[in-house]
Every structure is written in structure tokens, then in C-alpha cells.
Amino acid sequence: MVASIGPFASGDNIRRVPGEMNFRTALFTFDEALSELTYKLDQDVVRKAIKIFEANQQLQGPVILKKL
After folding, report:
1. Domain of life, per the record (predicted)?
2. Which of 33, 37, 41, 47 could hold 28 in an S-S bridge, CB 3.0 to 4.6 Å?
3. How many Å apart are CA 19 and CA 61, to the nearest integer?
4. What is the pLDDT of residues 39-50, one digit of tens each?
């Protein structure tokens, strides 16, 4: 499974904050995402999110991702 944070659609009225353009969008496996993070607190948040995702997978079965 991969984690992703990406840009909004170009027509969305989004207010940008200073420095936002310094961030990059990328796809990572869970392990890669953890290794990319610098701060322990950020890693802990991602670990919790992974545990929640995996617990949800056990309850609902596999997620089928569709191309939009």
C-alpha cells in the first residue's frame, strides 16, 4: 500500500501559505514514508495511521483502488 498527499484540482479556490511551494508531492510505501520523515513525532503519527489502516483492512477486507 502507498501513502500520498497531492495537489488539489486546478479550479479549486485554495489559499496558499508562505513556503508551501517548498514541499514536494510523492508516493511512498509505508516503510519508505517512515524513512523519509525526519522527526520522531511525525514518524509516530504515521505509525499510528498505519496501525489504524491495517486494523480497518482486517475488518473490511482489501481496498480496491480505481483509476479516476
Report:
1. Eukaryota
2. 33
3. 39
4. 999 999 999 999
